[in-house]
Amino acid sequence: MKSRRAADEESNLMSHSSSSSYDGGECYFPARYALALLSFMGFANVYALRVNLSVAIVAMVKKTSDDPKGEFYWDKTLQGIVLGSFFYGYIFTQIPGGWLAGRIGGKIVFGVGVAITTVLTLLTPIAARAGVPWLIAVRVIEGIGEGVTFPAMHAIWGRWAPPLERSRLATITYAGPHFGTVISMPISGLLSKYGFGHKAGLDYSGDNWPSIFYVFGGIGLLWCIAWFLLAADTPATHKRISAQERNYIETSIASGQSDDANVPVPWLAILQSAPNWAIVVAHFCNNWGFYTLLTCLPTYMSDVLGFKIVGGSLYSALPYLVFGLLIPAVGRFADYLREHHLSTTAVRKIFTFVGLVLPSVFMVGTGFSTDKVQALVCLTLGVACCSPALSGFNINHLDLSPRFAGVLMGISNMVATIPGIVAPLVADGMTPQRTAHQWRNVFIVSAEIYLFGAIFYCFYGSGAPQWWADGVASAVTDTTIQSRKKVARRTAGQQWGRQASVTPLLYPTDDDERTAEEVTSGDDFDEERELGESAGSMATST
Fold first, then answer.
1. What is the pLDDT of residues 20-30, one digit of tens each?
2. Residues 317 and 180 sit within 8 Å (Cβ to Cβ)
3. How far apart are CA 225 and CA 378, in angstroms?
4. SS3 label, residue 313
5. Distance CA 95, CA 502 (A)
6. How buried is 132 (Cβ within 10 angstroms: 0-12 exposed, 13-18 middle, 19+ buried)?
7. What SS3 state is found at 263?
8. Distance between CA 416 and CA 409 in Å, rounded?
9. What is the pTM of this model?
């Protein structure tokens, strides 16, 4: 059963969802699920464009200066810089992407970002042969283009996802990156050996690596055309949505949210929000392990487990295949628990905890594996067990504020991009001889970071809409009981200390289970309200 706080927290959303129920109609595929599938394919494409270099570089680079196999002689440090250069651009467009998507719409921002990445992928072989600086420049600009994608998509779901369908819709979309990884790794391995684009005078297994970039770049162009023809920023601008579905979505999301598209972003309130920082920390810790594997797994498969490029690519993709298959099912289960049994806060914390702790266990298991089978099983389970986290912190931005979900994702994904730059360099520095013992230390460090993220999120995370969810000015002037309660209980300067001292890991405190009537009937409510309004006024003036 849900706690009284959970019922209070979600009653408004539940009433709108239940009163505006939608049965889908006969012979009609819901537009929101069509959008989920289209965005799924988009993210599969952008991740294929992102990770194909991790496989291609194995065929591109000589192991020694006189090695006949390979076109370039780059030492391990330079390889790490090349692989990490994508993130140098990616990190800087996260927050601008979320802000811009809120202003002009996520459709254009997302589509243009993917188009930039696609075109530059087609130019990658030319840049690589022109010199390392050119290749790094191309990868940095690719990162700039792709950096807007996650914030833009979160902004779109803020307008499209009914509250009780957020987990299932968002996880369909965000299963895309992992299917993209699954597709990219084995196909890239096959293309490097059997594809086209080899340089005249070279004849070795893997000399067709340019075809990797040409094939995936071409697929990306086709997807861009489909996106601009079929996607829409909101249900109101969608050309093929039914009137019933549009009414269901708009009525569900309209709870407590104004229609003004130019509400100022409450930057100070967001930066002071403990639940927001809980997402940021969990996102960072999750991505450390994720990027360690994403960029280094092909090398680990080759150097330690002894797989050749094609076999290594196939086995490298296996963990992400299992992961991608689990994500939508886990998202549906999370929404079921939210609707029938647990508060949103409890669901987000439980799923984040499981999605960070179990991978840490299997990471350590990988480091202590004694043969190929054990290592592959631990890697597969470690990556697969990350899937609950996507129904935890990864979509928590939509709970805190649907309106500013793009900006919130921009903030957390910007910080979470740092591991994409640092983790490969740390892994490279910790494995100078590429021995199994050195890789064990890499996996242990990743496991420790996973654990820290799980603990931090369980202390400070929340699934409740924040008092600034529709803008600071709206929070101060709204006179409903729910809004007054949010303002009074989330004053600036009190939130961190309050949550750190009284919020348990998974469930609300007795103090937080007061009903709205109890909150507003106390003698101290007027004083609390004045404090809340004062905090809102300061944030507005700032």
1. 444 444 446 88
2. no
3. 40
4. helix
5. 32
6. middle
7. coil
8. 10
9. 0.72
